[in-house]
């Protein structure tokens, strides 16, 4: 294996735009002279923190050689570029739409009182997540046999670990050791599964080669 | 162990629990909630046995074949002591916590006791997954993948609805139900995939 495994480099303009957006969001969320007030700042502040974590992860993956090798092995070595490009073309717009849907849903929920309409407004972000899931499923179906096995085993491992974690968490909640809000606990199942899946993939891919 | 024999096991456990509840009610003068508990357990097992009757025949023969293979037999042999341990530790944990434990770390330990049995269950399942043939493994992992995506999206939607105060679900129940829901969705997905691949 070469010293610097190939990871695709994002277009510099794209990176600059994303960095600018993150700084803008941080300003809206945290600057004393931000035009937003009170709880309006929560959303841009959260987006800024999320983007900062994303940039930090990207930097870590690119600069730590062993991590870089693992990520390349798990995600890029055997995946045909066309398959990956198609996946990104479907997945990234879905995630962009998701951010907009969350924003729209938050704004709508402040104005709506009828329960049925509230339910519709609240469920707005599920639609783009559905499209993201479709992109993931299509990707898993299109990659080669070996990569497919890596993906499926990682998802299975993530599902097992997260459900176990939630089982333990539920028992702890019943015993009043912890006190988590139901909405956060429920909404976190999906991101947690995705996160564990991403880490598991690095380990599983290492075992296969 | 065929599915039909599993069904009779369930019937036997269900009837025994109901008999225990009846004995507690009329002979041993148990408190009402103990009688209710055992009636519930008995009814649950009988309902489970009823579910075995609803299983289509092709699925029954397929399961019987899978569990007749060495990997399947080993899996079942590992499974039943774990499930027994799970039920016992669940009982013990609920009993101890109801009685009240002052120290928080100790209460946490007693509370997660049943989850430890599930760790063993997952280890056994992982071993089973490694021992079966390629096609079966593909079906299993794909079924788990689909189940995991479906359940996590369902929970995501539930979390949003809860946040918007449209529904009001207890957070302990919400967390505990991830695993059973995942198992059920996985079972259904596996049936559909098996139909498609075999």
Summed up, the domain count of chain B is: 3
| Unreliable stretches covering 5 or more consecutive residues of chain B | none
Q: What structural class do you assign from the helix and strand content of chain A?
A: mainly alpha
Low-confidence stretches of chain A: none
Strand content of chain A: under 5%
Radius of gyration of chain B equals 20 Å
Oligomer: heterodimer
Biggest pleated-sheet summary of chain A: none
Biggest interface pair, counts: A-B, 52 and 53 residues
Characterization of the model:
The complex is a heterodimer of chains A (209) and B (198). By secondary structure, chain A is mostly helical. Chain A is 79% helix and 0% strand. Chain A has helices at 12-30, 42-63, 65-75, 81-111, 115-123, 126-142, 145-174, 182-187, 189-208. Chain B has 3 domains: 1-55; 70-132; 133-198, no CATH class. Chain B has 8 helices and no strands. In chain B, helix 1 packs antiparallel against helix 2 (32-54), helix 4 (70-99) packs antiparallel against helix 5 and helix 6 crosses helix 8. The longest helix of chain B has 30 residues, at 70-99.
Question: Could you give a short description of this structure?
Answer:
The complex is a heterodimer of chains A (209) and B (198). Chain A is mainly α.
List keywords for this structure.
heterodimer; A: 3 domains; B: 198 residues; mainly alpha; 3 domains; 0% strand; globular
